[in-house]
Predict the 3D structure of the following.
Amino acid sequence: MGDLNDVDTLAANNDLVRELKQRRPIDEAGVNDAIDWIERIVLAIAHVLDDEW
């Protein structure tokens, strides 16, 4: 099995979940990863907007 952050692994897991028509449980690590990604996106948007002013 690949690294949990590997895009192919995430896609395969998502396909498996869809096939089973179940939602994966969300654990604390998953929540933290999602928050980290949101922070990165917000910082990237802020950087772009800052450059435009």
